[in-house]
Write the structure tokens for this entry.
Amino acid sequence: MEEVKKGISEDWLSFWLAIIIFLISLLSYAGIDPLGWVVSTKVWTDPSKAMAPTGKVYQSVKGEITKIDGNKITIKKPDGKEEAITVADPTKYKVGDTYEKKGLSGFASLVLTYIALAIIFSIAAVFMRANIVKFNLGFFFIFWLSYLCWFIGHYAYFAATDAKKFNIPWSLKLTGEGGFIFALLLGLIVGNFFRGFAKFMGEALKPEFYIKTAIGLMGALLGLKSAQAFGLASAVLFRGLCAIIEAYLIYWALVYWIARKWFKFSKEWAAPLASGISICGVSAAIATGGAIKARPVVPIMVSSLVVIFAVVELILLPFFAQAFLWKEPMVAGAWMGLAVKTDGAAFASGAVVDALVIAKAETAAGIKYEPGWLLMAASTTKLFIDIFISIWAFILAYIWCAKIECKPGEKVSGGEIWRRFPKFVIAYAVTFIVILLISMQHAPKIAPVEANIKKIDKEIVSIEKQLATVTDPAQQAAIAAKIEEKKTQKKDLEASIKDSKKIVAQTSTATSGTNALRVLFFLMTFFTIGVISDFRKLWEEGIGKLALVYLICLFGFILWIGLLISYIFFHGVKPPVITG
């Protein structure tokens, strides 16, 4: 009988998909916005204004011209905000005129995004040897139901951090990331109450694939953020590495001991259970099961538990962090990486806690932290754990072969590390390093120079006021010369960072497109995690005893040890504050 060919693994496909999308995004350095058509969603009260293309070049613009400076015109939009636009022929415009440029509508952007993702994932499905028709039917519902949750999550009554800005009496202040929670809840409803529909979507229910691709893309965004505040990024990376090594060794040993000593599990069950509960969930349980050559049912059962409890953690922990850790935001982010299992849930909880804690800090203390840093703390600790899985799998494979099973002549090859290594992490590293190297020579220059420019602007305004009160011609001439000197200083400063601002702007264009896709992949991960969490089926498979161990270990000490270690390494570390 001819052996059925296996498709390419999700791990490798997520790596290549992330790399290809990233390479496309780099066309921004050629003056092109190749991903600007991807839909973005804003907090809304009027549904027609909720969606827009990510890139400005694709957006519709309308406003009153307030200033013309060379090829740049400044317009005041209906919302009161000003925007500078470069035009080919400024002589066609004058101050007071209405400027209008038609762009891609929000709904058209959404439809275009769906079509593009359907094509991309259909190609991936072919490589995975999936049924292409069934995959597309399932993906249709996954995309549109997920996005519906994202759209509802941005409704101002749910998402607005300042209800007054939207002229509404109250808001839950969840920010738009509340859509992640709605997607998860809808997925749980579908998975547990509409099992036929869940089965119908089964071919496209691939949360690990979606999240691994998203993680690969996320490196680019974090690379830019790291360049803009390189000192803090270095501290996060180092502290994250130290934290996971300490937590990892404590967690695994305790869970393994409890499973063996108290619950009398065999080594075959105790090792994958310890890895699944204490480290990286599904990936660790599967890697450990393979390393010790456990029966397939062992890591599958553990993985099922991991998904269920990850959902529980995902729902509870971000709100706990918002309530009690908003004064220590980086502790909250790192805690998500150490405590929440599975890559999808950990990165998603990092995104939610990033939004919730930042919103709390702004409303409670008036501190506006730059978004993304809590997510970086969570993702850094989680990714270090992912990297360590391959090393741990090698160690366990060696121990089981050399000490426990002791089969004569069997050796652990060096290739075991590579086979266990999570390949999508390489995409994260590549996108992170490339953007960091491009940006780190330019991004750190801009903020201090712009601060000096703002200072000079204030000085010019002050001197101009002084000039208005002087009548003596000699004094007027001296003050006018001083003003010109300040303006010259300002022009020199602007010229000194002109090239750097261009590079950072192009980098921002590249990362905004990849980040828009990353958000959608996260969103579909939430929904599909919920759909595959069929509680009744897992209970029927005899998962009760395993669940008890998981419950005791997770809520008995793992969460709290993770919190303590996060506090030790990230206490006092703050994200950059947005000023102005």
In short: Residues 1-5 have pLDDT under 50 and may be disordered. The first strand starts at residue 39 and ends at 41. The beta strands are 39-41, 51-53, 61-69, 72-76, 82-86, 98-101. The longest helix spans residues 498-532.
